[in-house]
Amino acid sequence: MTDNELIAHAADVRRHAYAPYSGFAVGAALLGRSGEVYAGVNVENASYPVGICAERAAVAAAVAAGERTFEALAVVADSPDVCPPCGMCRQMLMEFPITRIILANTAGKQRVLTPADLLPLAFGAAALPLKETSE
Ligand code: THU
């Protein structure tokens, strides 16, 4: 799947974003190693902090489907420049292997980054004094 195809997926699912409070709809499309695409949108809540971003929604959908290794994530919003993922989403994205992160806006701007570009010196499981990780 090309980057433009994945962006088109994210732009399409963005129509389902639930963003009545901010009015800022975001769509995400996460391409698994299997070739499957998992969609996410932001889902806001009257209790504002309860809302979830499109990126984390896409990761949750993928993990629920049994996929944990990813080729790419495309994120699309109607922002003046590409929409940078928030800090919480950056941390979430560091949890699973992903090759590239494609940021785009509805006007056609695009930027391709790695997870390390987005979150250098990320906190991860290696920092935890655990003997084993539970899967
Ligand atoms: N939002 C996302 O879904 N992804 C981002 O990368 C940035 C922000 C959402 C959260 C909230 O629903 C709205 O955009 C405004 O912050």
Report on the structure:
This protein has about 140 residues and is an alpha+beta fold. It has one domain (about 5-120): 3-Layer(aba) Sandwich (Cytidine Deaminase, domain 2), CATH 3.40.140. The chain is about 25% helix and about 25% strand. The chain contains 4 helices and 5 strands, in the order αββαβαββα. The chain has a 5-stranded mixed sheet with strand order 2-1-3-4-5. Strand 1 and strand 2 form a beta hairpin. The longest helix is centred in the N-terminal third of the chain and has 11 residues, at about 5-15. It is globular, with a radius of gyration of 15 Å. About 35% of the residues are buried. Bound molecules: tetrahydrodeoxyuridine. Tetrahydrodeoxyuridine (THU) binds near residues 22 and 89.
Topology-level CATH name: Cytidine Deaminase, domain 2
Overall morphology? globular
Number of E-state strands: 5
Q: In the CATH hierarchy, what is the superfamily?
A: Cytidine Deaminase, domain 2
Poorly predicted spans: none
Helix content: 10-25%
Break the fold down into its secondary structure elements and pairings.
Blueprint: H1 3-13, E1 26-32, E2 37-41, H2 54-64, E3 70-77, H3 87-93, E4 98-105, E5 110-113, H4 115-118
Parallel strand pairs: 3-4
Antiparallel strand pairs: 1-2, 1-3, 4-5
The structure holds tetrahydrodeoxyuridine.
Tetrahydrodeoxyuridine is lined by residues 19, 22, 24, 26, 42, 44, 51, 53-55, 75, 83, 85-86, 89.
